## 1
Amino acid sequence: MRQTAVMTNKDSPRPTTSVARVMLDSVDDMAAQLFDRLDGLSDAEYLWQPAADVWTVRAGDDGPVVDFDPDRDIDPAPFTTIAWRLWHLATDCFAGYTANFAGTAADETDTSWTLDAGEAVERLRSSWAEFRATLVGFEDWFSELGENWGPWHRHCIADFAMHASNELVHHGAEIATLRDLYRAAGPGSGLAMPVGEAMYSLRAIRRLRTDPLPVADIKIMLDAAIQAPNGGNLQLWHFITVTDRDLIDRFAPLYHEAWWAKRADSGYTPETLPDSHASARRLADEIGDAPAIVLFCSIAKGAAAANAIIPAVQNLLLAGRALGIGGTITTLHPSVEDRVHELFGIPDSAQVVYAVPIGYPRGRFGPVSRRPLAEVSSQNRWQREA
Ligand SMILES: Cc1cc2nc3c(=O)[nH]c(=O)nc-3n(C[C@H](O)[C@H](O)[C@H](O)COP(=O)(O)O)c2cc1C
């Protein structure tokens, strides 16, 4: 972290008698310092939710949207993510100010935004630059704001420059502190559940609610997946998170077909299928309801490449358990392979190892039921009843 201000006004003439010049230089320093602190912002930090019921940016039907209670005066205000704060600065503040000076302000603030941290910073940068250009365009900083500004119309441009820099600095400081907290909390800090609790209650969750999952949580799960051990650390994996409704609708019948093809390979028909398959059978009918399906692909063919991905799927499910998100490991069948590859653009050199529908459970997690340890383990030598 940089502790000193980044002075941008070295070249402006000093001393100066222009108060506006002094103020503008100072505002420039504040902006430069903020952009310095935003350097390298990751998507995970951007969407980090260290508290419940946050205002943030979420995936919407027509692209990402800013999610908050329209009653912004709610007291106490909910926690807001870095994503929300950047939107607020870029849109509510600077784009809004520029539009108000131009007399083109819309009745409602634009709540479409981005889930990409780098893009959000660039949007803030350009919204700030446009607002700054507007400020610079005023020759007399002590002229009144004018009637567009309602109760503040008798205030002057200099007042407004100070108000804008106040927004910039106080939200900028909040964002910078959140980044410090994120770093201090360490990776995986979104996963506070004790590992024992997660392991002992991790059931195959096949009945899923349709509610969309927070993008930040999916990212945490995927990030946990890629921490997994894997052969030679070659990381021969690629994860496709399918949330697009049309793609899920087209995948669902392929999964259904694959599931029944596997049953046919085992000699079962719908009439002879044992009751123990009831839950998996229902998933074959209902997988299209899942809000997301993660395809665990290996970027090479063959059993060794496929096996190397197994620990990753367990990590993803454990992380999901800690976040209250369930899922089930499922496999497909060679009879649908070509169509699945075509649907998701998967090359012939790769393979889908598991398809994992994930979502909030309609039932409850755990406990798991397993045979006693003594029955399945022995010491030093193989000891198992035939
Ligand atoms: C490699 C593997 C493949 C699996 N394939 C399927 C599947 O195709 N469909 C399904 O519904 N469950 C599948 N499962 C989930 C298991 O059926 C489930 O973990 C097992 O029945 C134990 O249930 P529990 O975890 O809820 O205790 C699979 C699990 C593993 C490890």
Note: The pocket of flavin mononucleotide is lined by residues 203-204, 206, 280, 283, 328-331, 368 (CB under 6 Å).
## 2
Amino acid sequence: MDDKPSSDDLYKSAVHILATLAESYKGEIARRIIEVIADKGEITDNEISEILGVDESEVRRVIWVLAGEGLITSKRVTSETGWITFYWVLPLDQVDGILLGLYRKIIDRLEKKLEYETSNIFYWCLTEGHDRYTFSEAADNMFKCPLCGKTLMPYDNSRLIAAIKWALSEMKKIMNSYFKEEVIKEDIPESEG
Ligand SMILES: [Zn+2]
């Protein structure tokens, strides 16, 4: 179907990058969610929960974080009877110009995220799936996690920062080489003499 082999490579690289990033945000379950979506193309919360054997509310909590970070996106399908179903898809299932646009958007978001991560100190209850808080948010909660009540401890985000930097450089590398190829193709002069 696709006559540009580079699009397929681009897609695989993108899935790999998204999965690695997702894992750095929300652990192994987030990586598996990305992989399941990549495998199925589009899938509901329910189906993800069934495939992974993970509680639906936990799946949903991780999904909302991933969606908030722009690593996954939703698609609304209305049936003939008016029933609305939400499917989760990866924002990279398209090719060429659209894909490049999405890459740029994600790169932009990652750069903002990097700025946010490097300019804040975070606090966390050390419970997988529970949110981290900035100093002022943690202070507002008197350094207790609002979900489980455990003490919020300083959170070392150096691995997350390293993962974001890595993802940024990988995405830029892929985008630049792909974009360069496109330019070369389009710049071939038509005249032969
Ligand atoms: Zn907690």
Note: Residues 158-186 form the longest helix (29 residues).
